[in-house]
Amino acid sequence: MQASIEQQSFILELQLLDNEIMQANTKLKSLPEIEQLLHIDKRITGANDELSTVKGEADQIALELRRSEVDVETVTDRIKKDEARLSSGSATPKELEQLQHEVITLKKREGELEEIELEIMIRNDAVITRSNTLNTDLSSLQTLKDEISGRLNNATAEINKVIGEKTTTRNLVANKIEKVLLELYEKIRLSGGGVGAAALVGDKCNGCNLAINAVEMGRIKTLAKDELLRCEECRRILVRI
Ligand SMILES: [Zn+2]
């Protein structure tokens, strides 16, 4: 295939622009903020999961606390009634003895129930503290997420701007290339990992980085400058520079 030196240089120019566009696209996908956001989202999910567990515990404790309060109240009421009866002076001596005994037993029970209530309240405090900590963590994580999202948006916009500009230039160059040559380039580029053309540097193909054997090099030297070369190894368009 024939292609003028100018056409060949356009192909190489196009390849350089395509490389830059590819690099920008790779950069776009590998911005550190993407990984950071994934990590933060994991932490937010973890904190929310724990928060819902803690809320479940808090509901359970609140229930236990209400029951415990009722238990204490019941015993306290009973003690008050017994004490009222004791001080009324209307009870028989046998009744008095029974009531005094009952009051002692009830007060012991009241003490025990108050201990239980205290223990539940301590657990309740711990759960509230944990819940507050988790809410604070979540709020900090959200702030951090917003900051990083902002950075990601800025970086993405900047790279997209570069891609846009390079694509415009690329299309201008592509328009100067003959249809058949451009189609060949595009076809090779598609199967060649984005590289359709490479420069011949010394005896090395810049596309596959392999040296071209002496026989082939000798043949190349005899070819006219407008003869389009292909690398024997990678089949890419080879441009003499
Ligand atoms: Zn090659």
Helices and strands in order, then pairings?
Blueprint lengths: L4 H25 L2 H57 L4 H83 L3 H13 L5 E5 L2 E2 L8 H9 L6 E2 L6 E4 L1
Helix pairs in contact: 1-3, 2-3
Bound molecules: zinc ion.
Features:
about 240 residues, mainly alpha, Helix Hairpins, 2 domains, four-stranded mixed sheet, 4 strands, rod-shaped, binds zinc ion
Q: What share of the residues does DSSP label as strand, in percent?
A: 5-15%
Order of helices and strands: HHHHEEHEE
**Second CATH tier, the architecture of the largest domain:** Orthogonal Bundle
CATH level-1 class of the largest domain: Mainly Alpha
Rg of Cα set: 42 Å
Largest sheet: 4 strands, mixed
Mass-distribution shape: rod-shaped
Structural class: mainly alpha
Overview of the molecule:
The protein is mainly alpha-helical and about 240 residues long. The chain has 2 domains: about 1-30 and about 180-240, Helix Hairpins; about 30-155, Helix Hairpins (Orthogonal Bundle), CATH 1.10.287.1700. The protein is built from 5 helices and 4 strands, in the order ααααββαββ. Strands 2-1-4-3 form a 4-stranded mixed beta sheet. β1 and β2 form a beta hairpin. α2 (about 30-90) runs antiparallel to α3. The model has no long low-confidence stretch (mean pLDDT about 95).
Quick gist of this model?
This protein is mainly alpha-helical.
